[in-house]
Amino acid sequence: PLSVRGERTFCDGDSAVLELTTSFGAPRWNTGERSSQIVVRTSGRYFAAVELPGGCIGYSDTVEIVVRPRPQPQISYDGTVLRTTAAYDSYQWFLDNVLIPGATDRLLEPPRIGTYTVIVDSGGCRGVSQPVDIALTAQVHLTVGSARAAIGERVRIPLLLSAIEQLARVGASRLMLQLRYNATVLYLLESSAPVLERFYQSDGTATVTLALANVASDTVATLEFLALWGNAEHATISVLRATWNAPTVTTTWSDGVVAIEGLCTSGGTRLFDDTGAFTIRAILPQPGADVITVIVTAIEDAHHRLVLTATDGRRWLLREQFLRAGTYAFVLAVDSMPPGRYELAFESATLVATSPLVIVR
Asked: Which residues contact 299 (CB under 8 A, 6 or more apart)?
């Protein structure tokens, strides 16, 4: 008799043992082997021949072995979803060799970056895919809010982010944001946002860098500005750069605008006065901010400077730029100046106008 140890149908890589139990001479298998038992790993029909007493040849039963191929799943990725290129009976996905609970479908939206594999079953045979490394990307849009405000009012500008759920997939939670705005019209109150850097340019604009951490909601931050008496009827808040702590985030943006209400205009400039005198017309403090608004009138097309001089002779150049004849408003930061008495000078190529200034804190 011929016995089978193991299944007669099994998966590629497994095996069965065929054993001939006889007291007669050495058997000869149709595989060419001559032992009493053999190990089979391929499909086929197997039997053995035995020499019986008297010289006759006896044959064992024939056993049919079926070896099923193991599936060899392949993974494709379209930038959003992982999938197997063929369908199977069941699936189990792994991330970095760790089972993903509930990930038992043919499709998988990868939750984060990492190495993905899938184990599938087909007809009782299991197969594992080659690993696939996924570097996820996220595409978000940042919208700077817009508003209207009167001079002296505080205005809140939200920074709104779309597709926030994509950030968690790539591990992005910190944003370095650089903004530019007209600093003669708006003053950013630092208490409303974590200001990392702030620079004032000679053209009257300011550039600020914000360090925003733990970004996890649609409203990234709400910036609070003080509306000033400046050189324009509105101020555009422009995004210059958005950098995340994950390099695979692409950010687009829309700028915001703050319109100043209640102004009287003539042509394209603010109508303060029209006497034509070279002078410092007014020095206006801005409540709640370490800045002053200085209103001056130029009567020649030339380079002009605003210089602050302390009683001990120290001088600070606050602003220098080319001006045409007209009246202008400049917002000047005085947060670095110690309290005391100063003289503010407005200088052109041929004229000088001065005004006393007292800084008190």
From this structure: 276, 277, 278, 325, 351
Among 332, 257, 234, 237, CA closest to 289: 332
Question: Token pair 């909601």 is at which residue?
Answer: 217
Residue 303 has a pLDDT of 84
Helix H or strand E encompassing 217:
none
Strands 249-254 and 138-144, sheet pairing = parallel
- Just give the CATH number of 2-68: 2.60.40.10
* pLDDT for the residue 151: 81
What tokens does 67 get? 């070896």
Q: Where in the chain are the domains? A: 2-68, 75-134, 138-261, 265-359
Whether the CB-CB separation of 162 and 190 falls below 8 Å is answered with: no
**How far is it between the farthest Cα atoms of the chain?**
141
- For the chain, 361 residues long, the average pLDDT of each consecutive 10-residue run is 90 93 79 91 94 81 94 90 94 96 94 91 94 86 94 90 82 92 86 82 88 87 87 91 89 94 52 60 75 85 88 90 83 86 88 88 72
Neighbours of 114 (CB within 10 A): 17
Q: Is 167 helix (H, G, I), strand (E, B) or coil?
A: helix
Separation of alpha carbons 361 and 353, rounded Å: 26
- Residue at 18: amino acid letter: L
H/E stretch holding 169: helix 165-170
Q: Quote the tokens at residue 284.
A: 């206006």
CATH 1.10.10.10 holds for 138-261: no
pLDDT in the model for residue 351: 84
Query: 352-359 and 340-347 as β-strands: parallel, antiparallel, unpaired?
Result: antiparallel
**Fold exhibited by the domain 265-359:** Immunoglobulin-like (2.60.40)
Q: Which residues on neighbouring strands pair with residue 219, listed in sequence order?
A: 160
Q: What is the C-alpha R_g of the chain? A: 41
Q: Answer yes or no: same fold for 2-68 and 138-261.
A: yes
Q: How far apart are CA 187 and CA 204, in angstroms?
A: 11
pLDDT value for 267: 42
